[in-house]
Amino acid sequence: xxxxxxxxxxxxxxxxxxxxxxxxxxxxxxxxxxxxxxxxxxxxxxxxxxxxxxxxxxxxxxxxxxxxxxxxxxxxxx
Length: 78
Description:
The chain is mainly alpha-helical. It has helices at residues 3-17, 22-29, 33-40, 48-57, 62-76.
């Protein structure tokens, strides 16, 4: 499984835990809703700026988001 797909799964999970729609998250992070959808489906690779913009709106640190993705990547490859 690719890092992009794992990132997308984590993004969707955290967004849903925050009870935000893709549209609301996109608006708050000043991104396009279709871009959020592409990220969640693993079709796009987020930049550091994007990760910071998203995590700021999801009440999670960028470091924690990367840690969650890294944990899943390591679990998948073992």
